[in-house]
Amino acid sequence: MYYLGKMAFYRLFITLITGIFLLPQGLYANPPAKQNPVPGDLRDSIQWYKNEGIRHAKGGKLENAKNLFLKELTYKQKAYPDKHPKIANTLVNLGVVNKMQGKFEKALQYYQKADKIYSENPDFNPGKVGTNLQNMANIYALYRDYEKAESYYIRAIKLFKKGPASNLERLGMVYNNLGILYKEKDDHHKAINFYKKSIQLKKRGDPETLYVTQGNLANSYRLIKNYKKAEEHFSRTINQGIQQFGKSSYLLNHHYLNYSILKLAQKEYEEAKKLLHKSL
After folding, report:
1. What is the pLDDT of residue 204?
2. I want to staple 126 with a disulfide (CB 3.0 to 4.6 A). Which of 89, 131, 163, 245 is the partner?
3. Closest to 271 in 3D by CA, of 258, 260, 256
4. Contact criterion met (CB below 8 Å) for 220 and 206
5. pLDDT value at residue 184
6. 109: exposed, middle or buried (C-beta count within 10 Å: 0-12, 13-18, 19+)?
7. pLDDT, tens digit, for every residue of 141-152?
8. How many Å apart are CA 127 and CA 94, to the nearest integer?
């Protein structure tokens, strides 16, 4: 059994992606000191379609969001050269929406088009470029093409390290995802190393993603039969989860299940039974 199943794995990636590329304000704003060369009416149309696309995506109206982003793209293609990074930003949003719809191949096509544009603008924001690389890595990981996924994650790490301190949380997510990737490849020692790196960077970040990574670490210790470390981390993770999210939170279920598997391996059958019951 895996700690993080396909749907939870997908959900974790989407949490990251939408948090970066579907922010409603200020993400692609021009610096105040520079004059925007795009005519006002065209600029207003681009902004309106972008904001409406984001609003519909956040509201779960994904087909509407996709159509709005396509309209935004049409206006941007009138306003900017073909290889302008602002066009790539909209391509990424289209990729995000398609991924949220489960259309991974289409999403990948949009991400690749964006990456091609970003590659021709080497001075563009490294955080945005790195996140798009991670978008592609996430899809390759879901396809179990781990070699390609790993290569894109490594490229993303290099870019996140170049950027400001605000990129550290994104870097922590990449480390977590690499940990999952190496776990799926049965390289548990390497997975543990990346989970630890992720935890160090995420301690001041989102408590939910930090909690997930801590559980991943505990489970990897179980898989290498370091039961003492596994028990220590499962106990810590569950206690922290109860304090942060409450006893009835669904976030506890996977931890209880994997903790019960640990107790079963230790032949503590009654305790395993109790933990399994809590996971249901």
Report:
1. 67
2. 163
3. 260
4. no
5. 94
6. middle
7. 999 999 999 999
8. 18
Asked whether the predicted pLDDT for residue 161 surpasses 60, the reply is yes
Q: What angle do CA 61, 65, 68 make, to 5 degrees?
A: 145
DSSP per position, the chain = --SS-HHHHHHHHHHHHHHHHT-SSSTTPPPTTSPP-S-HHHHHHHHHHHHHHHHHHHTT-HHHHHHHHHHHHHHHHHHS-TT-HHHHHHHHHHHHHHHHTT-HHHHHHHHHHHHHHHHT-TTS-HHHHHHHHHHHHHHHHHTT-HHHHHHHHHHHHHHHHHS-GGGHHHHHHHHHHHHHHHHHTT-HHHHHHHHHHHHHHHTTS-HHHHHHHHHHHHHHHHHTT-HHHHHHHHHHHHHHHHHHH-TT-GGGHHHHHHHHHHHHHTT-HHHHHHHHHHH-
Going by pLDDT thresholds of 50, 70 and 90, the confidence category of residue 251 is confident
pTM: 0.81
Q: Which residue has the higher pLDDT, 73 or 212?
A: 73
